[in-house]
Amino acid sequence: MNISIKKTLLLVSAMMVLGSTQVTLAQNALDNIQKSKLIKIAIPTDFPPYGFVGPDLQPRGLDIDTANLIASKLNVKVELIPVTSANRIPYLQTKKADLVIATLGKNAEREKVIDFASAYSPFYQAVFAPKSLNVKTFADLSGKTVAVTRGAMEDQELTKVAPSNVDIRRFEDNNATVAAFVSGQTQMIATGASVAANVIQQNPQIGAEYKLLLKDSPNFIGVAKGEDALRLKVDEIISTAKKSGDLEKLSQKWLGRSMGNLPE
Amino acid sequence: MNVQLDLGAVFSEWPLLLKGIFLTTFMIVVSGALGVLLGCVLAWMSSQNRGAQRAIASLYIEVLRNTPFIVQLFFIFFGLPSLGIKLSPLAASMLAMTINLSAYSAEILRAGIESIPKGQLQAAKSLALKPLQTYTNIVLPQAFKNTWPALVSQIVIVMLGSSVCAQISTEELSYAANLIQSRNFRAFEAFFVATVAYLVLSLIVRSFLDRVIAKLIFKDTHG
Lengths: 264, 223
What we know:
The structure holds two protein chains of two kinds. In chain A, 42% of the residues lie in helices and 27% in strands. Chain A contains ten helices and 13 strands. Chain A has helices at 2-25, 29-36, 62-74, 88-93, 108-113, 153-161, 174-182, 193-202, 228-244, 246-255; strands at residues 38-44, 46-47, 51-53, 59-60, 77-83, 99-104, 114-121, 124-130, 145-149, 167-171, 188-192, 208-216, 219-224. Chain A is elongated, with a radius of gyration of 22 Å. In chain A, 42% of the residues are buried. Chain B is mostly helical. Chain B has one domain (9-218): MetI-like fold, CATH 1.10.3720. Helix content of chain B is 78%, strand content 0%. Chain B is built from nine helices and no strands. Chain B has helices at 7-11, 14-46, 51-65, 69-79, 89-114, 118-126, 131-161, 173-184, 187-218. In chain B, helix 5 (89-114) packs across helix 7. The longest helix of chain B is centred in the first third of the chain and has 33 residues, at 14-46. The termini of chain B are far apart. The interface between A and B is medium-sized, with 14 and 16 residues.
């Protein structure tokens, strides 16, 4: 027993040493990608319209299109790795993925463990309503009904900015909020881009569209800490794609909205 | 444990709470009255010898008594709009409570009606009372008296059950408690206040029904 524990400990520490050496040595992700002609990109598959599984069982969405765009500009093949919100950063830290393109928001905690390349797409909470409804400013919400999920970020934002005579109907969860909007019980819905895209896609008869922005938190591309060469290359590709309108096209295609001014 | 009870955080949202208490009371007053009234009609229908009336009444009662309240509520609020019937959260809640209560009170009243001796009905007939007159003057007051405690309990149950109406954004008491706790994360205090409010409301409803309404319906009935 004792021996096996010692052995295991030895093995583990050996692995840790090896692992850490790899991390300190491997500042050459870009070289490896170009040598192997393959880039591994972590993408979401449970987060429409950014990443979801299509009827053909293949992942699709804005993040997947962005991943393909980057691979084609690098002139390499792409291997898509499905990740969840919780494990996308570990995939990057352990080099199982070269890039993470999975609705990753930038914040101080994350910047300690990984690096961020440019933002590539907007993520936001907003008010959505049918095209026929004339809503251009928050004042236009007056006297109208809005469905929102109680306690969600969009509830807090909407409560802050909406005029006092807006009928804000708060529901228990996203499903009830969506049901209220889809069944016509409310004129508008305040929700995240992901939920809204689903609603718009599955209920074309409503003709819902983006109306007012509540909160913006754009998505960034994640790169392993210290992989500056790769990060700069990705920045360059994204910057070109912004100028050429390729990214704008993706935003229109998947989100039905302009990407707006994304931070570098 | 370093948790402090901060009821002030909940009471500072008193307009929400007050509105919630008012709406819960309003809903049970309206749907309590309408529900029991409809229950009388249903009990009348199911005590008739005509097959069609009985069949309709028993179908209505069985469907409503054997499906969950929340499903009935969701059907009215989320389902009916596709048939072109769009009700506000408050109207949908009161409609759901009314039809739910009507089915249960019809069954409770039916038991009271069956307990009335046949001789009384024959006596009424021999006094040339019409069936409807017999029902409203002889049968119903005694049926109410015999089943009153069960009816009162059912009304209180429906009032407490109205807490699920928060799910369709009716701004009643539970909705207020939920909203307050999602704003200040004082779940214990918010639900503690809601619990006390429900308890007090139930006691008030019970004693109001027993002391005021009961006297109106069957004050000089000897049954």
